């Protein structure tokens, strides 16, 4: 599901090449990837998660609507252009376009999710061995181009064969994301990315950050399945779940 420009196009546009490097660094930090062991995905195949049916008041929510993707979010959250630790701060800002990545920032200033309206990074990452457990799934009704689901998954990762800087050799993590059902069904065969197509020619990535689980008082690399399930009862989880389910294709 690659949607990258031809190499000649990239090399001819230095700002775009710099954007590709930034996206690659960001993807490296977010990916859990690798040859997995999860059975084929059927969505939505789980009973309603505990606590997720409790209502969230969305009456004062704002709407992000850019470059063919839209979603709603709480009034005291912000959507900001992506920044990362270690990026070249002296470089002039890149012009905003459909490839601009965005941070979803909560009321406490924590980057809780990332959004790529049109992802053009490398889809061949392979960073470890993992075992996945889906804790919550639901169909995303606003994406009509291809069946897409919201998934909250717990992952056990073994980086002993391919250590990742800044990450324990064995870790447990959890994340909320959107992915095409076709992509979910093949994650036992291919490196997995939380991407879907809202329209022809576009590949969108929306996924929570490791710091999202820290808002529940957990170490982001030591999230047990039990703790992840408990987190599903929290207002933080239910709010982010509602944000994810509100994602929809819009006019580009």
Question: Any overview of this molecule?
Answer:
Mean pLDDT is 77; it is low at 1-18 and 31-40. With 252 residues, this protein is α+β, with helices and mostly antiparallel strands. The strands form 3 sheets. Strands 3-4-5-10-9 form a 5-stranded antiparallel beta sheet. It has a 3-stranded antiparallel beta sheet with strand order 1-2-11. A 3-stranded antiparallel beta sheet has the order 6-7-8. It has one domain (7-86, 98-249). It contains 6 helices and 11 strands. The relative contact order is 0.22. The longest helix is centred in the N-terminal third of the chain and has 17 residues, at 14-30. The two termini are 20 Å apart.
Question: How is this fold's topology laid out?
Answer:
Blueprint: H1 7-11, H2 14-30, E1 62-66, E2 69-73, E3 78-81, E4 102-105, E5 111-116, E6 129-139, E7 148-158, E8 170-180, H3 181-185, E9 195-196, E10 204-208, H4 210-214, H5 225-231, H6 235-245, E11 248-249
Antiparallel strand pairs: 1-2, 2-11, 3-4, 4-5, 5-10, 6-7, 7-8, 9-10
């Amino acid at each position: 599901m690659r949607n990258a420009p031809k190499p000649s196009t990239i090399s001819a546009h230095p700002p775009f090449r710099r954007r590709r490097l930034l996206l690659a660094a960001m993807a490296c930090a977010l990916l859990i990837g690798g040859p997995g062991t999860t059975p084929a995905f059927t969505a939505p195949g789980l009973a309603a998660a505990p606590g997720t049916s409790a209502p969230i008041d969305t009456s004062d929510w704002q709407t992000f609507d850019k470059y063919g993707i839209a979603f709603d979010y709480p009034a005291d959250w912000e959507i900001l252009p992506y920044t990362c630790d270690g990026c070249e701060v002296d470089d002039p800002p890149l012009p905003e376009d459909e490839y601009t990545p965005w941070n979803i920032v909560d009321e406490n200033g924590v980057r809780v999710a990332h959004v790529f309206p049109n992802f053009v990074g490398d889809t061949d990452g392979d960073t470890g061995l993992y075992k996945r457990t889906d804790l919550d799934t639901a169909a995303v009704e606003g994406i009509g181009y291809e069946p897409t689901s919201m998934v909250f998954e717990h992952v056990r990762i073994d980086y002993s064969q391919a250590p990742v800087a800044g990450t324990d050799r064995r870790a447990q993590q959890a994340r909320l994301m959107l992915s095409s059902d076709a992509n979910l069904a093949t994650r036992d065969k291919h490196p997995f990315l939380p991407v879907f197509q809202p329209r022809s020619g576009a590949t969108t990535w929306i996924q929570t950050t490791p710091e999202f689980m820290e808002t529940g008082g957990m170490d982001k690399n030591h999230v047990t399945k039990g703790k992840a399930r408990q987190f599903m009862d929290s207002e933080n989880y239910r709010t982010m779940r509602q944000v994810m389910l509100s994602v929809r294709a819009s006019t580009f």
